[in-house]
Amino acid sequence: MAETENMKNEQNGTETEETVKGTEEMPGAEGQTAGAEAQEAGTEGTGAEQNGAAGEEPEAEAKESAQADEPAESGETAETAGDAISSVKEKALRDKITSLEDKVKRQMAEFDNFRKRTTKEKEQMFSMGEKSVIEKMLPVVDNFERGLAAVPEAEKGGALASGMEMIYKQMMKQLEDLGVKPIEAVGKEFDPNFHNAVMQVESDELETGIVAQEFQKGYTYHDTVIRHSMVGVVS
């Protein structure tokens, strides 16, 4: 009986040692359990971080949206300013073009006036030169007329008289081509614009104020009197 009880005690001791050993080996399982709990805690932490990151994402998006809006507004402002500057530059350019066109028109008008004035002055100079020469030739014409009037009737058909007559006609033709014309006087009403009365005469045939005699022939040059006729007017 005693032996039987000792064997039972030994078996119980063996089982107890095995139980202790099993218990000592259990920390691995407990470690696994703790690892699982830590993993679950880590998962929860990761979820929290993810939630935090998710919470931060709207803020980042808001910031990015604000930053995106700010450049857009800045771009619109810059575009508006650029349009204003372009409009100012365009207006300044138009004003400059208008000013230059006005200046060119003024210069063209001044040049045209200068050309007309110069042409007129040249014509006047030529006219004055011709007039001066004609005035100096008129006494020669007068002498030719006096010489022809003094030729006796018997010699009027001679060579000398005929030569003088030809020279006189040629001279008068040249003067006519230059625009010189004699002023009609005898039998015309006295006109102080063309006639210079040097004496008064009596006449039964002519009325008062009519030119009866011509002492010196007058001439016009292009409708301008270069020498008045010296006449006698009926009183």
H/E series, N to C? HHHEEEEEE
Look up the CATH topology of the domain at 73-178: Hemagglutinin Ectodomain, Chain B
Distance between the termini: 211 Å
Helix content: over 70%
Number of strands: 6
Largest sheet data: 3 strands, antiparallel
Total helical segments: 3
Shape: elongated
List the strand order in the largest sheet. Answer: 1-4-5
What structural class do helix, strand and pairing data support? alpha+beta
- CATH top level of the domain at 73-178 is Alpha Beta
**Which regions contain 5 or more consecutive residues with pLDDT less than 50?**
1-58
Radius of gyration: 69 Å
Report the portion of residues in β strands.
Answer: 5-15%
CATH architecture of the domain at 73-178: Alpha-Beta Complex
Mean pLDDT: 73
Keywords:
three-stranded antiparallel β-sheet; Hemagglutinin Ectodomain, Chain B; 235 residues; Nucleotide Exchange Factor Grpe, Chain A, domain 2; disordered N terminus; three-stranded mixed β-sheet; 6 strands; 3 helices; alpha+beta
Give a brief description.
This protein has 235 residues and is an alpha+beta fold.
